# Entry
Amino acid sequence: MISAIALSPSLDVTYVVDRLAGIQRPHSIHRVPGGKALNAARAAAALGAPVSAVAVLGAGVGQDVADGAQAHGVEVHVVPGTEPTRSCVSIFARDTERLTEIYERSVPVSARTASAAVDTAVGLAASRPGWWFVSGGLPDSIPAGLLADAVRRLHDAGVRVAVDTHGAALRSAVEAGPDLVKINRAEAQELVGGDAGTTVPELLTAVHALTRGLVVVTDGAAGAWATDGDGVLRARLAGHTGTFPVGSGDSFLGGLLLVLDGGGDLAAALALATATGTANAQVPGAAVVDPELARRLAREVEVSAV
# Structure
């Protein structure tokens, strides 16, 4: 089973227009329950995993997000928030084939509400074994140490924990020894103090020294690297890009956890993760994944030892 804690969800909207100027009538509109945690949860659900999410949601838009996530196969446990749930907008202009992304900041979540979300997750862990994950940036109102506390308490409840975040929250979380850290190259550099000259394998080694768990570092079109401490793997998929990358990193995480939760090895997990992220980029809407395409692309992913 795969479960998420979503402390900063959103309603993600993608517009496809002719150009980014003047009055536009969108050719298509795509609304999905989003934020990084719910995006990853929906990607895993699309691939067939039983998925649950504890989500802090305000009234109005928050109800739309909850209903949408349920419709996408994610069992949602709502922790009521006092602020309206945010919206994030992506606009794809056909004339330039470029995306403009407008992301509202995470709405304030009180320490009490955030703690209630963690309490809910810990309470569900006995009936939701497998992997739990926390993904995305935390609202500024939440103490960074809350994430480390969540990792420790979920470990005590007997489940494995993955983290995909950045900044102070990431630094705090790694102190608790999550089973998996999945971050991008810039986030890894920030965490360990690397610079532009630091190679990804060096970053992997440095992060693993902090967590002693699985570490995955993504680097856009250059591929993804992973280590379990015994060796380094690199995954690459040539010949496929896509014009809608929003949510690809989240989709990557969903595919990664699906394989790991099913007992697959790290190489297989990297292959499906890479393919799921690429499949997401083919169509508008964050974490809108065709599972058949993802599994077909997974057979084309090159995973090699570094």
Observations:
- The first strand starts at residue 2 and ends at 6.
- The chain has one domain: 2-305.
- Residues 2-305 form a domain with the UDP-N-acetylmuramoyl-L-alanine:D-glutamate ligase fold (CATH 3.40.1190.20).
